[in-house]
Amino acid sequence: MRQTLSTSINLNTASADQLRKVPGINQTLAQNIIQYREANGPFSSVNDLSRVQGVDNFRMDMIKKYVQVGGSQG
Predict the structure, then answer these.
(1) Which SS3 state, helix, strand or coil, does residue 56 take?
(2) How many CA atoms lie less than 13 Å away from 25 in the CB half-sphere?
(3) Which DSSP state fits 6?
(4) What is d(CA 36, CA 72) in angstroms, rounded to the nearest whole number?
């Protein structure tokens, strides 16, 4: 069973284990997010997740309320 998040996960600093706590993110997607971040630099917006392989509109809707970049969501 997944642990409930009490704070948002920072897409630019989160480890794969931290990302996997987000509903909708499995091990493969966590690795894809990290690989994208390493190849393209930090996310400037949560909406940049749509560029990651495996993130479609449905998954984005599941994830976006649990993640942030920098100090604010969006």
Answers:
(1) coil
(2) 27
(3) S
(4) 20
Which of the 8 DSSP states describes residue 8? P
pLDDT tens digits for the chain (74 residues)?
445 566 799 999 999 999 999 999 999 999 999 999 999 999 999 999 999 999 999 999 999 999 999 864 44
Spatial separation of the C-alpha atoms in residues 1 and 41, rounded to whole Å:
32
pTM: 0.86
How far is 1 from 19, CA to CA, in rounded Å? 15
Instruction: Write out the E strands in 9-69.
Output: 9-10, 67-68
Task: Single out the residue of 5, 27, 28 nearest to residue 17, CA to CA.
Answer: 27
**Joined tokens for residue 26:** 């499995």
Element containing residue 60 per DSSP (H, E): helix 57-63
